[in-house]
Design a protein that fits this description.
It is a single chain. The protein contains 16 helices and no strands. It has about 300 residues and is mainly alpha-helical. It starts with 10 loop residues before the first helix and ends in a 16-residue tail after the last helix. The relative contact order is 0.11.
Length: about 300
Amino acid sequence: MNFMNFTTRQPGNRIRIWILALPTIVIIPLLVMDDLRDARAAAACSNAAAAPILKYLRLRRANHPTTNPLEVYRLTSKVLQHSTSKALSESDLWSVREDHVIACIQLGRTEEALSILNLVTGRFPRSCRAARLKGMYLESFGRFDEARATYEAALRIDPDNLMINHRFAALRVGRGEIIQALEDLHNHLESHLGDYQGWYEAGKLHARQGAYAKAVFCFEEVLMHQPGDMQLTLTVADCLYACGGVENIWMARKYYASVVESSGGGNVKALLGVCQCCARLGEKGEEGEEGEEGEEG
């Protein structure tokens, strides 16, 4: 596939195939969502021990590209402050610390992030994961040249590390160089088509630029890997709605409806999305319009 030419295709074409395949694959994402929902409920208990929280964090990390940093911060703080954290395996403890540092950086809690970051880099001085945390910390202060040097040093140890490669695009975004960031991601995805986190980042940038057809294409690739992500499904529906045209609005309604079904009618945004799509499709003259392409950037 030529990634650079993907925008010549209607955003709804491949999605229609995915929607038609839903009866054969819907069981797996529903089971994943059930596991996540149960694990989240167990982790949210005020007296929850470390084990259910660790289970939820693992499931969340493995099945969702989207993350709520405040939720992660609260959960990892609970584990790190819990008396049973001393009984955690070394691997689990450092994974929790890694998640905690990232959440702290995203929430602007830089002093707290630095205290744990020093522990991580001291324990794993040549680790790419530690280098990523250090680079993200430097980025949060606008020290982009130092962050780039950190990432480049890490790539000399592990040239194919996806987490580090993603950070170069993030550096571009931090400098306000969105077009160049997208070019970096395009080049990366040409040789790493299965990197769903890279597709997700590209989709976010395209949506930020108002190129909704391109964003749909990218997010669709993520849904092929993580079909149970209701938040991402809503994002695809929003982008399709923004593309305009009967076909895209119709497909957006399908996506909103799938979230309504998966959530048992409990997702208000999905319900409103279905109503809004029905209203658009029922507008005078809408049925006779040709489907339009979304913005191409």
